[in-house]
Each structure stands twice: as C-alpha cells, then as structure tokens.
Automatic annotation (TrEMBL):
The protein, known as: Catalase-like
Segment forming the signal sequence: 1-17
Natural source organism: Agrilus planipennis
Domain of life where this protein originates: Eukaryota
Gene: LOC108733153
GO cellular component annotations of the record: mitochondrion; peroxisome
Classification lineage: Eukaryota, Metazoa, Ecdysozoa, Arthropoda, Hexapoda
Length: 367
C-alpha cells in the first residue's frame, strides 16, 4: 500500500509540471476543461496509464467513433447554406408557416450527391444526383429529399434494396457489374422512363449549379381551413441547364474527380451565389380519381399542360461549410420530417422512405 501511495504522489507532481494553455482552453466532448492534450496521466515518468485519465479516454473514444459508416446511397456529396424566400402567395394551398407571406425568408441547408457512387467516386459519373433541402422553419425542420430527375426507377419500395445492390459492387468479384445492373433494368420495365433520363445528357450534369431538382414523391398540402391538394415540388436552376458530354464527363473522372464539389465551393467563395426557383404542381382529390394515370406512381410525371407549374419562391446558396464532416457529411435528411401543412400522400415510395430514411439517418448522425 505504501508503494502505491508514493507512486500516486509522483503522478501528481508530474502532472503539475505540465503547463496549462494560457491563451485559451479546450474542453472534452462533455464540456470539462482539458488540462493538457500533449501527455497522458501516468504512474511516474515511465509508468503505465491511469484509468482516471478521463481526458485520454474522451480523446480516444471520440477518435474511435468519429468516422461514420458510408451512406448506403448518396455517399459522395457536397453542400452549402443559404435562404429560401417566398415570391408568390400559395396560402390557398398550404398553411406551412414558411409560405405564410411574400418576402418571408427561411434558412436552408442543401446537400448534393451522386446516388450509387461511393464516398470516393467521381462527381461526373453517369448517375442521378441527390438534391436535398433542409428548411429551418419556425415550426421545425422540413426536409425535402429530392433528386435531379422528376421520376424514379421503381414504384414499389420493396424493390429498392435489390435495385441498389445491382448498382454497387458484385459480392464475389467486388467489381461493378454491367450484367447485374442490366438484369434488373430489363426485368423491371417500369425503369424505362428513368433510363431515358439517365442516358440522356442530363445524366452527366455540369456540376451542381446547372441542374434542376425535384421532390419526386407526391405530397399532400393542407391549407388553414383543412382543405388539401396533392403536390409535386420542382426547383429549377436560375443558372440554366448545362450538361457535360460523355467524353468530357469521363475525362473529368480522372483529372478532377471532385469537379462538382469544387465548382460549387469556388462559386460561393467568389460571391457568385447559385439560386433556384421553386414551383409546385397541384392536383385535387377529384382530379386524382379521374386522371388517366396513377399520380402516386414515382415512375411517371404529371403533364405540365394539365397541371401547370405554380411559382412559390426562390432559394439562394450564399455560405460554404466551415466543417465539412460536421455540417455536410453528418447532415441527416429524411422525408418523414414535415411541418404542419405538409403531409404524406398514398405515394408508396414516399411511404417506404418514411421508415427507411430515419432508420438510416441514425447511422449518419452516429446515434
């Protein structure tokens, strides 16, 4: 016992010999001040570590957990912050507070991404692009997790895992497999519409600033009197639509794989703020019952000559992230996060996402 007591005294003397930072101080993840990050607490100058060194334990525990698993989809992404401003009155359709008056501004965060690409994939590979917006409203956060195409490959969410598996690496060879991908496409004819988009020039957009975005799913808007309409969201680029040729996209994969991320960051840094105008299409209950197509089928568009675009507002990105991992990589977006006035519809893909996305985002947030 005497030996242990003497050694502990030595520890205290050793600890006092290490100076505390004078200019400022840092804390652990729980807010306790850190004495010194440059040395562990030991039993004497050459002794083992002590379990009571909570600063070391906090440092290592954070390090062990700081990298989150790659998202199963939309793994490679970039983003920025800005604001949404209402330009037209749509209170006859929706009671959500962010649409309450013309000129009202709401803070937003946007995450762009590829869909099938891994975290290290090139930005210019042929793929749909994720285009998700988080609105920080006074009623809570509203997430509009959309894509660069107005439709999707499938209409039944139970097929989604199988579809994504075919777009990833083959389980045996660990290589991307064209046979595996096209087996799925040819066996599921509802993918044809989306394939026409994917293999057009819009499958290789010229960065994130020159592409449109769409909510894809059908939502329900409810006004202050309780009357509802069904809705599709569109956000069209004010920079115009610009795409890469297949040859240029392939070239950039080797010379600048982060092309889209770099373009967005540098544009905002130079005060060349990108913006998009948001529109909605609306459909009444009666129209939904009498239409010649299923308005809740995500493989179909709503004809604009029958359901014209209605302007809602404009959003602008004017702020780059200062901590990419914390602000963009850990940005958790889920269609289940809605605000009063916006509700789900009978859209089956949306209903599937209402469960799947919150479940996935717990991993993204490292919960």
């Amino acid at each position: 016992m005497m030996f242990v007591k003497l050694e502990v005294v030595a520890v205290l003397v050793f600890a006092r010999a290490i100076p505390i930072y004078e200019a400022s101080y840092i804390t652990t993840g729980f807010g306790a001040p850190v004495t010194h990050r440059g040395a562990s607490l030991t039993i004497g100058p050459r002794g083992p570590l002590l379990l009571e060194d909570t600063e070391f334990i906090d440092e290592m525990a954070h390090f062990d957990r700081e990298r989150i698993p790659e998202r199963v989809v939309h793994a490679k992404g970039g983003g920025a912050f800005g604001y949404f401003e209402v330009t037209k009155n749509i209170t006859q359709y929706c009671a959500a507070s962010l649409f309450s008056e013309v000129g009202k501004r709401t803070k937003i965060a946007v995450r762009f991404s590829t869909v099938a690409g891994e975290r290290g994939a090139a930005d210019t590979q042929r793929d749909p692009r994720g285009f998700a917006i988080k609105f920080y409203t006074e009623e809570g956060n509203w997430d509009l997790a959309g894509n660069s195409f107005p439709i999707f490959f499938i209409r039944d969410p139970i097929l989604f895992p199988s579809f994504i598996h075919t777009q990833k690496r083959h389980p045996s060879t660990f290589l991307h497999d064209g046979d595996m991908q096209w087996d799925f496409f040819t066996l599921r004819p509802e993918t044809t519409h989306m394939l026409l988009y994917l293999f057009s020039d819009r499958g290789t957009p010229d960065g994130f600033r020159f592409m449109h975005g769409f909510g894809v799913n059908t939502f329900k808007l409810v006004n202050a009197t309780g009357h509802h309409v069904f809705c599709k969201f569109h956000y069209l680029s004010n920079q115009g639509l610009r795409n890469l040729t297949a040859a240029r996209a392939q070239e950039l994969q080797s010379v600048d794989p982060d092309y889209a991320l770099r373009d967005l960051y540098e544009a905002i840094k130079s005060n060349n703020y990108p913006s998009w105008t948001m529109y909605i299409q609306v459909m009444t209950d009666m129209e939904a019952m009498n239409t010649t197509f299923n308005p809740f089928d995500d493989t179909k568009i709503w004809p604009e000559n029958e359901y014209p675009l209605i302007e809602v507002g404009r959003f602008t990105l004017n702020e780059n992230p200062t901590n990419y991992f914390q602000q963009i990589e850990q940005m958790a977006l889920s269609p289940s996060r809605m605000v009063p006035g916006i509700k789900p519809s009978p859209d089956r893909m949306l209903q599937g996402r209402l469960f799947s996305y919150p479940n996935l985002m717990m991993k993204v947030e490292n919960l």
